[in-house]
Amino acid sequence: MLKKITLGFIVCLLLSFTITNNFSELIQEKLNSYIDNYPEKVYVQTDKPYYSLGEDIWFSTYLVNGINHKKSNKSRVVYVELINEQDSIVSKKQLYMFTPNTAGDFKIEKNWKSGKYILRAYTNYMRNQDPDYFFKKQIPIWDVTNADSIITNITKTKLNLTKNNTLKEKPDINFYPEGGYLVNGIASKIGIKVKDKLNRDIAISGVIKDSDNNVVSSFKTLQFGLGIASLIPQNGKNYTAHVTINNTEHTYQLPKALPEGYNLNIVNNGNHLLIGVTTNNSIGLKNAYLVAHQRGNFVFEKLETTTVKNYVIKLNTNTLNDGVTHFTLFNNEGKPVAERLVYIDNPENNVHIQLTSNKKTPSTREQLSLHVNLKDNNGNAVTGNLSMAVTDIDAIEHSTLQENIKTYLLLNSDLRGQIDNPGYFFENNDNKRKYLLDLVMLTHGWRRFTWNDILYKTTKETIFKPERGLYISGRITSQKNKDIKTGTTRLTFMGAFPHQEKKRVNSAGSFKYGPFVFMDTMPTIVEARVNDFQKEETKANRMVNIHLTPNYSPSPIISRQSVLKPNLNDSTKINNFIKQSKNIYDINLDFIEDARLLDEVIVTATRKTQEEKRTEELNEKAIYGFPTNRIDMKDYENLETLSFLELVSMIPGVNVVNDSITIRGAGSPSIYLNNIPVQIDDVNTMTGAEIEFIDVLKGADAVFFPNSGNGVIVIHQKEGADFLTKNIKRKPGIIDFTSKGFYTAREFYAPNHIDPFGGNNKKDIRTTLHWEPKIQLTQEKSSKEISFYTSDIRSNYAIKIEGVTDDGIPVYHFSTFEVD
């Protein structure tokens, strides 16, 4: 028996030794793996918090590394969606991120229904995590033609939230012991949070009683329904919180204290943290391991090697980045037993947006110039990317308490639950706000991962890969739909910058081209052959079916959790917005009507000859530029019965022998029909009746087309002719289609009140005075000038600038100016 006990003791010692010597390495390894496979974060700034039907939503999308908030080196593609109340995606943009931010916009159609829309943004790589990690922002869109009902609803909502300054019902209160658990005999702090919004801003007082009905502590909630209480639980006793409302006492059961356990207490003194660790275990804190990370980035560790029951550490924060820091205590078995979040606000990291104006109080319809730059605490220029909105503050509700890029990246995106009015904690650097922010840390948990998942669960396979461009992929089969494992494909882009490449299919008959980056649309051709492309094609070699793969994945499940919501508390400003939007709606209707009744305008110009007009008309249809030679069938209407071969033989330098064409000084040319490559036997039955004109291109004139060394002949059909449809269509071995590229944002329109054609005759009462989606500050150009014109409205205007530096520091600026 003694031998068994001794053996067991030795095993425990060996196990403890293994844990203490290897556990730190395991933690470091897992955190490093998390950093290597870092999550991505997306943030979207919009020009306004709410809109009316018929308006435009202007936005700038930011994509960053979720750990250091620098430019992500994974994804280059971001999807931004606008979702209505029926969870239908009414508009979707696919954006390419050349830099950490890019511009976008949505046109709100007049026939849409009003309601609370959601703007959602994510990358394909982010789909490997829960959709709650996507950026989601609620955007009210109103029908201003029914203005009375909007104001009534807003007013009712406001009254429901503010009509009571005293409690009438039992409030919903949660209690959060510091570190996670109450432990008998150990002094603990308990975070308190009023859950329901209706009572969150009403001060609630209460006491904590033990099971003998003795008052052992008291508490009071402060702003945002946050409070704190202190308690030393005793063995054998339970504890309840008591709140009296309208002479009725309501009770809340506190979490039951553990007989043995650990307590992790942290006091945040700004430039340093006091970290206290306590236990009542018999072996004390021996082999207990304390580790801290910031968004997965390792910050601090301590392995206790003695049997002490408690210790206190002072940790300086002047070298840490800003943001939520996650402290976890592991026991000697490697299990997490206590956790605490702390917010680090290091003044050394401060970056300031500096804004200067050429006019302090501009007049209506006057040009205003703003100079924007970034400076650190020492006045040195900082590089980064920004976006700016200038809006009418009397019609657009603005609050520095609302979400912005700084509060989102540093706070809300890393915490469980929603932080209301997060800007409050960053508005001023005073002790009250720091204290309340620490209460937020007490009452919220880290949501990016749990230690049990990261330490002991097998890493999931990455299903959704980071996208770095567009792909064109698919597979080929024989005419009998049997796989072709040795075939060859060829991709041709026919846009302004033509491109052609060839690939063999894999063993499954699949092919994939890309990544490509192009905007808007691109005429595209995919060809395939059983073996390889040959100069003298055989019918058997072309008997191939091409099956394209959709270049997009189905949209993720729509979730309305973790949605950022605007403040709609100022009914006066919303009323002004509705009235102003209604006036804009009426002005636009009047302007359209007046445009139909313009006075006669006399334009004097030199009349072009009919021949010049015809040449310009044909050149516009020829996307490749100017031909070397051309035959216009309008000049040869009496030859419409001739075949294509007979017609092309009339062009200087072109020789036709039987069914073979050569160009003098070149060779056998490539043949195109309406800019789509074809074989000569595809078009040799065409007649002049179906052709509008034929162009021959040699040398430099042919460089638009791939493989153009032997020259190019391009046939253009007459409008309405269906030869291509009848003869090419989806012929075996070739398909043509239009590839959809990345979205290019429209340019924000604002009247130029100096330009006589800039719309100065139309009344200008815009609610968004200016939108600048991309302000890039570099070492070469550390300042940017933004110029725009004021409108007809004498009002106060808000300037809201958001962005992120190249070093990953989110920045935010809010200021106002008056138009006299």
TrEMBL record:
<dbReference type="InterPro" id="IPR037066">
    <property type="entry name" value="Plug_dom_sf"/>
</dbReference>
<dbReference type="InterPro" id="IPR012910">
    <property type="entry name" value="Plug_dom"/>
</dbReference>
<feature type="domain" description="TonB-dependent receptor plug">
    <location>
        <begin position="628"/>
        <end position="711"/>
    </location>
</feature>
<protein>
    <submittedName>
        <fullName>Plug domain-containing protein</fullName>
    </submittedName>
</protein>
<dbReference type="Pfam" id="PF07715">
    <property type="entry name" value="Plug"/>
</dbReference>
